[in-house]
Amino acid sequence: MYIIAGLGNPGKQYENTRHNIGFDVIEVLAEQEKITLREGRHRAVTGTGMIEGQKCVLAKPQTFMNLSGESVRLLTAYYKVDETAELIVISDDVCLDAGQIRIRKKGSAGGHNGLKNIIENLGHENFIRIRVGVGEKPSGGDLAAHVLGHFASGERKVMDAAAVRAADAVRAVIARGPDAAMNEFNGKAV
Questions:
Q1: Cα dihedral 159, 161, 167, 169 sign
Q2: What is the rounded CA–CA span in Å between residue 107 and residue 104?
Q3: By the 8 A CB rule, do 57 and 47 touch?
Q4: Dihedral through CA 117, CA 121, CA 127, CA 133, nearest 10?
Q5: Structure confidence by residue, pLDDT tens digits, 9-62
Q6: How far is it, in rounded angstroms, from Cα 96 to Cα 54?
Q7: DSSP 8-state symbol, 103
Q8: Sign of the Cα pseudo-torsion (101, 173, 123, 77, in order)
Q9: Kind plus residue range of the DSSP H or E element containing 2
Q10: How big is the CA angle at 161 (ends 158 and 164), to the nearest 5 degrees?
């Protein structure tokens, strides 16, 4: 069983923001795989279904980005998954070009507060993560304003395509493992 957690912030005001690309990927997966998402337990919107022949729980933590680990910890404990192999976390990344995908099997939070909180709650950094590039903040700009900002229309098209590619990356991790998925997706632009 896999838990696939896309990070973001709940609420209409945060829809279509850079920080919510993880939520966008979960929505794409839910639509493609015909998985119904519902307000659920574990402080998340969740849906259960099959992806690549494996039972999966799609999750959008509702704890707000900086406390994402609280929900992820509840989910992993309840479903008793191997966090190092069966947890996939999807987040935004300001160090990657808009639309670029990077898969890692472990690593630091890289300055991302949602990932930092997951690492704190799990007690380790050994979980699969799929980072989706949202582009760097403008020179001299405020990082919080950048990640909480909405995409321009041209950017939205790139990010919609990136959400589909990230959903494909999730399927690749499940079907062929993280190493094969990294070889296929890392460093390649949309």
A1: negative
A2: 7
A3: yes
A4: -10
A5: 999 999 999 999 999 999 999 999 999 999 988 999 999 999 999 999 999 999
A6: 30
A7: E
A8: positive
A9: strand 2-6
A10: 150
Q: Please report which residue ranges of 83-177 form alpha helices under DSSP H.
A: 83-86, 113-122, 143-147, 153-176
Average pLDDT of the residues of the chain: 94
Structure tokens at 168: 């494909």
Q: Is the Cβ–Cβ distance between 156 and 16 less than 8 Å?
A: yes
Q: Which of 19, 112, 124, 146 is catalytic?
A: 19
What is the C-alpha to C-alpha distance for residues 186 and 88, in angstroms, rounded to an integer? 16
What are 75-90's pLDDT values in tens digits? 999 999 999 999 999 9
d(CA 30, CA 126): 25
Architecture of domain 2-185 in this structure: 3-Layer(aba) Sandwich (3.40)
pTM: 0.95
Active site residue 146: no
What DSSP letter does each residue of 33-59 carry, written as one string? HT---EE-STTEEEEEEEETTEEEEEE
Rounded to 10°, the helix 21-33/153-176 angle is 60
Instruction: Write down the residue that tokens 């015909």 correspond to.
Output: 34
